Amino acid sequence: MGIEIAGIGSYLPERILTNADLEKIVDTNDEWITTRTGIKERRIAKDGEATSDLAIRAAERALKKAKLKTSDIDAVIVATITPDMFFPSTACFVQKGLGMNSAAVFDISAACSGFIYGLGIARDFLRCGTYKNILLIGAETLSRITDWKDRGTCVLLGDGAGAVILRNSNSDSDILSVYLGADGNSSGLLFMPGGGSRNPATAKTVEDRLHYLKMEGNKLFKVAVRAMADSALKAIDMAGISPNDVTLVIPHQANIRIVEGVAKLMNITLDRVYINIQKYGNTSAATTPIALEEAIYEGKIKKGDIAVLVAFGGGLTWGAAVIKI
Ligand SMILES: CC(C)(COP(=O)(O)OP(=O)(O)OC[C@H]1O[C@@H](n2cnc3c(N)ncnc32)[C@H](O)[C@@H]1OP(=O)(O)O)[C@@H](O)C(=O)NCCC(=O)NCCS
Predict the structure, then answer these.
(1) Burial class (CB in 10 A: 0-12, 13-18, 19+), 62
(2) Residue pair 230/321 in contact by the 8 Å Cβ criterion
(3) Separation between Cα atoms, residue 77 and residue 191, nearest integer Å
(4) What per-residue confidence (pLDDT) applies to 79?
(5) Using an 8 Å Cβ cutoff, are 266 and 232 in contact?
(6) Whether 244 is catalytic
(7) CA-CA distance, 72 to 63, in Å (whole number)?
(8) Of 19, 92, 112, 255, which residue is the catalytic one?
């Protein structure tokens, strides 16, 4: 018995922030952003719109595609680093918003790799028979932890959500492999220092701008390329297939140059790599399901095809999954 994506949906906030808009906020320009990152615009959540609001919309679309009712869902997993609150989990707010009154619900924190980590967890729950229909969501409102005075990060990030419903199936579809990795020793390259138990919120932490995402982009760049290519190749190997069997690689969209570097190391041409960074920038855990949904919608992958999902992010964390659609 395999595992299939019974339904998939995504939600991107309506508000578009273009490179031209950013030129008015920080010392940057469209040419720099486009050539160094590949990003042209990103989506920003409305005032008052929280991560769970985006997640709920994506989940509703996935449920509709799967032709399932909320009562059919027995577990909700939300991958996010921008939860509505420290607690309860964002998954609890999703449960409430969807009008569900049972199911196991929890969040996972693995930054941009969160959705891939979630796929590994969901796969094992399904294989063990613990749950039947798992709603897995990647959702972020990175705009809420973006320092709009830091041109090195604010041009990169955006908001969005993507959701899948996974279930056991007699069809050919399956999650063929999941490979996960991390290096906590490099946690200082990408993190948000303020607000947790290390630096609880005070007037001083606010004044010192500690409640914003901090990133050493330059140092991350090389690690990202190597870790994503390694992860993808390991997952391909674990699945017992070769890179030639892969229809489409769906990489995390942090920087077009990282994506190109990964494709080169994997010896895969860019026509077999999905890219939508120009529209949304980096939406962390939401990136993978949003890109997967678009790739399916655009017909770039269809039933029977093999896709490799691969991501890298804060932690540092990384991972890849090989799925047969
Ligand atoms: C962030 C990133 C786009 C920066 O690109 P880069 O080519 O490494 O650029 P650098 O950081 O070396 O900066 C080069 C110059 O551009 C400047 N610069 C940085 N951001 C800029 C911006 N938005 N507009 C214009 N200039 C900018 C820098 O100040 C620097 O100027 P200097 O040489 O006068 O000091 C790139 O490093 C990156 O994408 N890193 C990885 C991101 C990532 O993987 N994140 C984690 C995964 S989720």
Answers:
(1) buried
(2) no
(3) 22
(4) 98
(5) yes
(6) no
(7) 10
(8) 112
- Cβ atoms of residues 325 and 301 within 8 Å: yes
252 carries an active-site annotation: yes
Question: 291 CA to middle of ligand 1, Å?
Answer: 24
The ligand 1 atom at the shortest distance from the C-alpha of residue 252 is 48
152 CA: nearest ligand 1 atom: 20
Mutation to probe ligand 1, out of 36, 154, 288 (largest number of atoms < 8 A from CB): 36
> Which of ligand 1's atoms lies nearest the C-alpha of 22?
23
131 near 75, Cβ under 8 Å?
yes
> What is the pTM (predicted TM-score) of this model?
0.97
The one-letter amino acid at 223: V
In the Cβ-directed half-sphere of 68, how many Cα atoms lie within 13 Å? 25
Per residue in 101-142, pLDDT (tens digit) is 889 999 999 999 999 999 999 999 999 999 999 999 999 999
> In the numeric block, which tokens belong to residue 90?
């964002």
Kindly give the distance from the C-alpha atom of residue 84 to the centroid of ligand 1, in angstroms, as a whole number.
Answer: 29
Q: Which domains does the chain have, with CATH numbers?
A: 2-170 (3.40.47.10), 176-324 (3.40.47.10)
- Cα separation, 41 vs 209, in Å, equals 25
pLDDT tens digits, one per residue of 266-275: 999 999 999 9
